[in-house]
Amino acid sequence: MDPVFGQLLAEYPRFLTALEPAEHSRTMTVTDLAEPAVIERAVAAAAEIFGIDDPRHAGQLWWFSAVNSLVSPAVTMMVEYDRVPDLDLATGRVFLRDPVDRCDDPGAGYWIGFTPEVFSTGSEETHRRAGEGFSRSVGPVVSVLSRVAGIKPAPLWAVAADGLAQAAVEAGNEAFDPYLGVRVASRLVSGLAAATPAGVVVPAPRFFDIVDGTVTPTDMDAVSAEEEPDEVHTVVKRASCCMVYRSPSSGKCLSCPRQDPAERERKLIAALDQ
């Protein structure tokens, strides 16, 4: 593992299970990940963990979790340390944390991780290229998941775009440089969109700032000018839904796009005041 991951994990220990396989984890290729049996097991595992009967909802929830695990550590590194891991999954190590061959264990086959092994220096070009690499490598996974779970491709690509954008914006907030997070997010999603299959429209990310208890659209001119605003917390206005609210044990998440917008803003402001 690249030495910079030691620094990343010291600051963000929550990334450990997404970056580092455990003793029982199963390393796999991207082709393995796109095998129907692997995807079917992941959808079944989501149903087991969250009590969701509809495979469409279970499959989308698994994909939301998978995207988060695959990209969040790497994107945080881009924002925090100006190192850009290659997000083409074929260039690193993909692993199942609880392998599919342990399918007697409830939830086995759900959690995946990715250890990048190829890096570049941060720039607009390398950020876009990382988004393109992620898009190309997960395209077969999206295709199989769409077929297995009966989900249209569009919402799955929206989940991928939101996952990249949210990881970058959250890292920018934590680094006290929210507009850097927005710049990285925009570049990653632009790259993702450029490499999706023909006919797929990836929604452009939208951002909002919370300042003094007020929610306003992010000043994209200030983002482009590389300004560093004071006391700003930036959020992504998600286009996708994780579907966790379909679980009988869960409600809608904080940034859920299916909420009333005013209620979502109230919750986001309240969360910052805690």
TrEMBL record:
<dbReference type="InterPro" id="IPR024726">
    <property type="entry name" value="FhuF_C"/>
</dbReference>
<protein>
    <submittedName>
        <fullName>(2Fe-2S)-binding protein</fullName>
    </submittedName>
</protein>
<dbReference type="Pfam" id="PF11575">
    <property type="entry name" value="FhuF_C"/>
</dbReference>
<feature type="domain" description="Ferric siderophore reductase C-terminal">
    <location>
        <begin position="238"/>
        <end position="258"/>
    </location>
</feature>
